[in-house]
């Protein structure tokens, strides 16, 4: 199982050919400079493998060894936290291998797991017959490997935006904020028939958005993140409970699913 999971993870990371791998008390790390790839991973005793990777400037988090996702499902929710009593929902994209998923907000997850220690991961419905499946793990600390993946992709080692993510509700907006003009991305010039991108932005006092950044995207070289970023230029929101032009800054998140018709 571990061999199959790692092979899948390396393929998703874009890694191929000869790999330079360090095995230390830290997370295991793979470097492939010719492909601009840095890949940190840890296999767990329960069969999961958790990995963070930077491939040519695109950051991602991958989890392998999950129960098979339901047929036709494109996303799945995992509940993650320091214990079974303190879990939060996180959204993951299902890959072509339906036991593998990619996190919508990988850099924030990387920063939250690098200290190691107890972690609970709950897969809703993953135990069959409507039962949840829970993995109670003790992860090793990553003193360098995870930070190396973040730095390779220009992601900060500390980011105050992480504290704002829990305010984003299922629709991607904090409570009390609604779209008046949603982003309308166009399909990028690419050879891929489908893909996705997840972005975060900060709401401005006048309802526009700024400080937008791509949190995750796939395929890595599909241009879907850049296309989604361009669509934010004319997007606008309103906060009915506040005075127009004086909206408090807050973070929004949204996913764009692309499929060629």
Textual characterization of the structure:
By secondary structure, the protein is mostly beta strands. The protein folds into 2 domains: 2-155, Sandwich (Immunoglobulin-like), CATH 2.60.40; 166-259, TonB (TolA/TonB C-terminal domain), CATH 3.30.2420. It has helices at residues 2-13, 106-113, 145-152, 224-230, and strands at 20-22, 28-32, 37-43, 49-55, 58-64, 75-83, 86-94, 100-103, 117-128, 131-139, 178-181, 194-203, 209-218, 236-238, 251-259. The strands form 3 sheets. The protein has a 10-stranded antiparallel β-sheet with strand order 1-2-3-4-5-8-7-6-9-10, with helices on both faces. It has a 3-stranded antiparallel β-sheet with strand order 13-12-15, covered by helices on one side. Strands 11-14 form a two-stranded antiparallel sheet. Strand 12 (194-203) and strand 13 form a beta hairpin. The chain is globular and about 50 Å long. The protein starts with a helix and ends with a strand. Mean pLDDT is 89; it is low at 17-23.
